[in-house]
Amino acid sequence: AHLDRIAETDGKVHAFLHLDTEGALAQARKVDDAVKAGEQVGPLAGVPLALKDVMTTEGVPTTVGSKILEGWLPPYDATVTRKLKEAGVVILGKTNMDEFAMGSSTENSAYGPTHNPWDLERIPGGSGGGSSAALAAHQAPLAIGTDTGGSIRQPGAVTGTVGVKPTYGGVSRYGLVAFSSSLDQAGPCARTVLDAALLHEVIAGYDHMDSTSINTPVPPVVAAAREGLKGDLSGLRIGVVTQFSGEGYQQGVLRSFEAAVSQLKELGAEIADVSCPSFDYALPAYYLIAPSECSSNLARFDAMRYGLRVGDDGTRSTEEVMSLTREAGFGPEVKRRIMIGTYALSSGYYDAYYGSAQKVRTLITQDFAKAFENFDVLISPTTPTTAFKIGERANDPMAMYKADLCTIPANLAGTPAMSVPSGLSDEDGLPVGLQIMAPALQDHRMYRVGAAYE
Ligand code: GLN
What we know:
It holds the Pfam family Amidase. Heterotrimer of A, B and C subunits. By secondary structure, this protein is α/β, with parallel strands linked by helices. The chain has one domain: Alpha-Beta Complex (Amidase signature (AS) enzymes), CATH 3.90.1300. Helix content is about 40%, strand content about 15%. Strands 1-3-2-4-6-5-10-11-9-7-8 form an 11-stranded mixed sheet, sandwiched between helices. Helix 6 runs antiparallel to helix 7 (about 220-230), helix 7 runs parallel beside helix 15 and helix 9 crosses helix 11. The chain is globular, with a radius of gyration of 21 Å. The two termini are about 25 Å apart.
């Protein structure tokens, strides 16, 4: 049924870069046979899923939305991919994304944009716009995204779906094509909070293949979501981050947020304002740290190891082939980030740019810690605006980066955060997201609140 739905709708939405029809049907049959034989099956046996094309899949194309990996067939599964298969999940295919997960609209994909199912002229968010659009278009009930600076939550918000960035280190990065390693984190996308929780528990957990994987028990997110569904938040203390309003925020988004605050109060929560002054510097700090790490990570695309190779006709040096391949293989945003990162890391500028950004990162972590002394969770709008039109910000990187204003602090601090649907804006009728943030390893707190609210 989901493959039929994709066939009907994906000509317009373009959520998928690659459909793995054969692999999906084979897995579905395998699960079916196991059930018929009375064998034990995994917790999500037979449930279809859309996988962001940043996660390696053995023998199935993985492009990261880039020309530079066109034609590459990974020789191994990412840990997330492996865990999905073991849980019996049916992976339908790989979803569209901004090239190397750099962007907030999916317009930076080398394979053309994804369209928001709510209004095909609008962006589905980014970088994981394909995964969230697939959910909104009912092409899949579950999806995987990755969130380096909001790429799960912002697409979730503008497509009216649920998106969760777990605590950094909670889900293995092994096989996740690296953008900014100290920020990258995979997480679940779904249409309900409980569905996201069920997927979260399948993909999370310690992995010795990831040096920053946390070796502690997976937070009890499914139990918390079920608890939340009872609709009682008595005694829970919720902080409203005052930095996330004002200039650049649509009135429709702010009104939806006010309505969410009232609803959470009705559910019994105690709500008060909290100031996190360093959050004002999160965006500039992120746009130094992420490009710095990317400039290093993307050095591996050297025309020798993977995918594309241009100009290798026996007349050119290795360096020339490398240069021609990177020129042809990377899009403009990726090149911009590599340039910014290389500059910020160069001797003489390192302390002023990268060093300062790292100090801001510490201040943001301290702001979170202080706020969590008085509050169980923090809330804000997920994004300052609803989905904008395709093309509207394509030539204005600063305008594009502002879509990440509310989501980035949690990445810099490594703390978990989720976006849950918060109705439609009374201005333009488009989906709005409510962001819920929790302390590190307390992912279950936000699931409880999210399930109670949705
Ligand atoms: N908009 C952010 C960026 O362009 C999102 C990155 C992400 O989370 N992958 O860097």
